[in-house]
Amino acid sequence: MSLIDTVESDQRWLRAAIELSRSCPPSQTAFSVGAVIVDSGGALVGEGYSRRDDPHDHAEEVALRQLPDAKDPRLGAATLYSSLEPCGARSSRPRSCASLILDTPIQRIVFAWREPSVFVTGEGAELLRAAGRTVVEIPDLAPLAREANRHLLAE
C-alpha cells in the first residue's frame, strides 16, 4: 500500500470512527468517542462507541470486545482508529483503553483528537508509544471529533 493509499484509508476510517461518536448517549461526565478496528486487508473487524452497552463503556473497549479472539494473528497488522486518543487513565474502570489495547497484538493506533485534561490527564498515546506501538495523530480531523463534545468544552 502506498503512502497516499495509507493516508486516504486513515482519513476514511477515522471519519467512520468520528461518525460513530455521534451515536453516543449524552453524558456530562465522559467524552463521546467512536472507534473502529480494521485488518490489513481493509475489513472492519470491530467497532464501538462510548456508552453503547453500559454507561461506563469506552469506545475502544466496546470495539475490542467484538473481536472473536484478542490474540488473533490478523490483529498484528490491524489498525485501531479512535476519534479521541485512547485513555491512559480512567476513573470509571480499573484499566485504561491503552492498557486494553496493549493486551492485543494491534500495533497501529490512529486518532484525531488528543484527550484534553477535562476528566483525567490524557497520556494514552505516550503509553502506547513507550510500549513500541505506532501511534498516528491526525489533528486535521480533531474539530470533527470535538464537535460531538461541545457541551463538555469551555467556550
Give the overall average pLDDT.
Answer: 89
Strand content: 15-25%
Low-confidence stretches: none
Number of helices: 5
Helix content: 25-40%
| Element-by-element helix/strand order | HEEHEHEHEH
Q: What is the architecture at the second tier of CATH? A: 3-Layer(aba) Sandwich
| Global geometry | globular
Round the Cα radius of gyration to an integer and report it: 14 Å
Characterization of this structure:
The protein has one domain (3-145): Cytidine Deaminase, domain 2, CATH 3.40.140.10. The chain is 29% helix and 17% strand. It has five helices and five strands. The chain has a five-stranded mixed beta sheet. Residues 8-135 form the CMP/dCMP-type deaminase domain. InterPro entries: CMP_dCMP_dom, Cytidine_deaminase-like. This is CMP/dCMP-type deaminase domain-containing protein.
